[in-house]
Amino acid sequence: MDRRRFLHASTLLGGASLLTLPGAQALAQAPAVITRDAMRPQMPHGIQSGDPVADGAIVWTRGDRPSRLWLEWSTTASFANLQRVRGPHLLEDSDFTGRVDLRGLPAGQEIFYRVVLQDLHNERVMSEPVAGHLRLPTALGAKGLRDVRFAWSGDTCGQGWGINEQWGGMKIYEQIRRINPDFFLHSGDTIYADSPIPAEIKLADGSLWRNVVTEQTSKAPRRSTSTAAATATT
Q1: What sign results for the dihedral spanned by CA atoms 104, 108, 110, 115?
Q2: Which residues have a Cβ under 8 Å from the Cβ of 173 and sit 6 or more positions away?
Q3: CA 70, CA 80: separation in Å to the nearest integer?
């Protein structure tokens, strides 16, 4: 484990009371024991939240082995005054998936949460925590209603405009993140494959936009006759 990951795990697990989970206290009493990442439960698909209502939401994950899902949530990013929820067992008959239906959350608040999996074969072995963040809607009829912000995108790198390292890379999604929208909709094509991406594009002021180009992006894709015909009819 490198220094950054060690400090991150120490902050979340040591200082944030996840060590009070069942079996974890024994691990805390043996600080010289470091569990290899390969031995820890993993969440290969990350975590997801959805179906938010004024006082609740669902948090979902998938593990890679039999484990118990634990979840902590707070209304602050520092996880002050956190609440802990014991989730279900993630077993083979559910493809190691499981969810927590959180209720009793404060309406209209931002909720910061993190998920940890506890290995069922060795309860002292915990996954690294995976953190998430969601925003709840305001309760119906409540005062102080706020605006709701939507953001959308599509056709990433479309029309030949790709990643320009001299400009700082691809900055569009960072700009979307900064405006902190309530909803983000990507309407398709996380890559734009209908036309090649050139190495350079001349701009109106005479300067050059320089794309990062690979063998795959420098040439147009081969399209079947049926695909071309279907495109022509639409």
Answers
A1: positive
A2: 153
A3: 17
Q: Which residues, in sequence order, are bridge partners of residue 210? A: 200
pLDDT (tens digit, 0 to 9) for every residue of the chain, 234 residues total?
444 444 444 444 433 344 445 544 433 344 445 567 778 999 999 999 999 998 999 999 999 999 999 999 999 999 999 999 999 999 999 999 999 999 999 988 899 999 999 999 999 999 999 999 998 888 776 676 777 889 998 888 878 888 999 999 999 899 998 988 888 888 877 776 678 889 999 999 999 999 999 887 877 666 544 444 444 444
Q: Quick one: which H or E segment has residue 24?
A: helix 24-28
Asked if residue 55 lies in contact with residue 39, where contact means CB atoms within 8 angstroms, the answer is no
Indicate whether this model's pTM tops 0.70: no
- Calpha distance 34→32 (Å, rounded): 6
Query: Residue 128's closest CA among 233, 222, 29, 2?
Result: 2
What count of other Cβ atoms lies within 10 Å of the Cβ of residue 41?
23
Tell me the sheet residues that pair with 59.
49, 100
Q: How many CB atoms lie within 10 A of CB 165?
A: 10
- Neighbouring C-beta atoms of residue 56, cutoff 10 Å: 15
What are the E-state strand segments in the chain?
A: 47-53, 56-62, 67-74, 83-90, 97-103, 110-119, 130-135, 150-153, 183-186, 200-202, 208-210
H or E segment to which residue 178 belongs: helix 172-178
